[in-house]
Amino acid sequence: MSYAKVLCVGLVGVTGHLVEVEADLSAGLPAVVISGLPDTALYEARDRVRAAVVNSGQRWPNRRITLNLLPATLPKFGSAFDLAIAAALLGGSGELPLLPLEGVVVLGELGLDGTVRPVRGVLPMVAAAAQAGVGRVIVPVGNAAEAAVIPGVRVRAVDNLHRLVAFVRDGTPLIEPPTAVPAQLDDGPDLADVAGQQLGRRALEVAAAGGHHVALLGPPGAGKTMLAERLPSILPELDDDAALEVTALHSIAGLLPPGGRLLRRPPFQAPHHTATVPSLVGGGSGLARPGAVSLAHRGVLFLDEAPEFSKGALEALRQPLENGRIQLSRSGGGTVYPARTQLVLAANPCPCAKPSGDAHCECTALVRRRYLGRLSGPLLDRIDVQVRLMPVRAAELLAPEGDTEPSATVAARVATARQAAATRWAGLGRRVNAEVDGPHLRRPPWRLPARVTAELRGRLDSGSLSARGFDRVIRIAWIGEWRNSGQSET
């Protein structure tokens, strides 16, 4: 037999595609040719696979070897094809009977000694295999727990090429994935730690209930960072679909914690103000990888000292904030990553960040305007909740323990509000107020009475409020609806 085929999966963004790895051995000068739009890492697989096959005690065929990855029009990236290539090559040379691998997806990177190493993106790869009707997969032992998360798929693991050869040739059992252990959720920072700032706490609760973006402006020490870091603690846990999306993105980025479990806690990303545009929205050679805005999908993206970020980085966030996704085009291909995150901006009132008043802040009014002017109007127009925080007073700072509500109490109210919103917007396919499109809010049955929107319409006509700002106010107004047993306050 001079031809063999093994199944694998290729990723384009978070979308997986079933790939057929073909191997054909023919007479001619010994050579290895790989076709099917491979990237550099995949093109170098011929050397890795050769060393792994020889060092695993198998015979390398001294023939002309043609490896083709179907569909040939789909770009292929990474080293996850190594193990499938080795199996197809050994099958084509007659060393292995590949009947045990029929209808099985094989994933893994090979070391030169034949070790099978873990790869990124196994979870979305296995999910794609399941959607394509494949019920069995073989993955590196380091990815076994992650792959076993996908229901309806039988997962087996290998730690080296020799184990896979023994399974195919003699039926030697493969490694079972570890038993899933219930995740112990870290409670994280609690709102009870925040002194005072009732306005800021209320703004955070409104933002959590409606999925709104937040801007916190105030002097140093007012609690902006503390509030932002505690927003995830009052957000509901991720449901199965959202958890799968978030876990898949972290799998692609190689950031999954040990154990390979679904991430149930809303993620929190806080890049430094020196972050570049690619680090925020995604980038890298070949196919772009997810950036901080995608890694914060279904969670919180916190930009502390927001005016210190570069203008390009801040403006790059406008499109994903509007659409809930980021589309990246590179020379190696284009991809779309989800980016439905809650943005939290924090900013001091001026560059010196000293207390206001005589003998303290030396910034002029012009300097203050220029500093906050780094946050452009179009960007702030997408921030639903904008709050100015006052300095914390001594009485608030020294208040007895227990005077402030903990995150658990606030989270219960947020969950109730979100449930009401999910019921209200179910017909529109939306879950929170922030996801509702403006046209729906301005048409019956959701259009508010004219007497309620009179001031808003006046501001819109005078130019002090944009059309997006008009819709933003209406979205926030619906937060109070859940308090009156399904009847709008208006």
Plain-language structure description:
This protein has 20 helices and 18 strands. It has helices at residues 40-43, 45-55, 82-92, 122-131, 144-147, 161-170, 198-210, 224-229, 240-252, 277-281, 292-295, 311-315, 318-323, 365-372, 377-380, 394-397, 407-424, 438-441, 454-462, 467-477, and strands at residues 3-12, 15-26, 31-35, 64-70, 104-106, 109-110, 116-117, 136-140, 154-158, 214-217, 268-269, 282-283, 289-290, 300-303, 325-330, 333-338, 342-347, 385-388. Residues 482-490 have low confidence and may be disordered. A hairpin with a 5-residue loop joins strand 6 and strand 7. By secondary structure, it is α/β, with parallel strands linked by helices. The protein is 33% helix and 18% strand.
Shape: elongated
**CA gyration radius, whole angstroms:** 27 Å
Low-pLDDT sequence parts: 482-490
Counted by DSSP, the helix tally is 20
Structural class: alpha/beta
- The helix fraction, in percent, is 25-40%
Strand content bin: 15-25%
Widest sheet: strand order? 11-14-17-10-18
Number of DSSP E strands: 18
Largest sheet: 5 strands, parallel
**First-to-last CA distance:** 76 Å
**Could you tell me the mean pLDDT?**
89
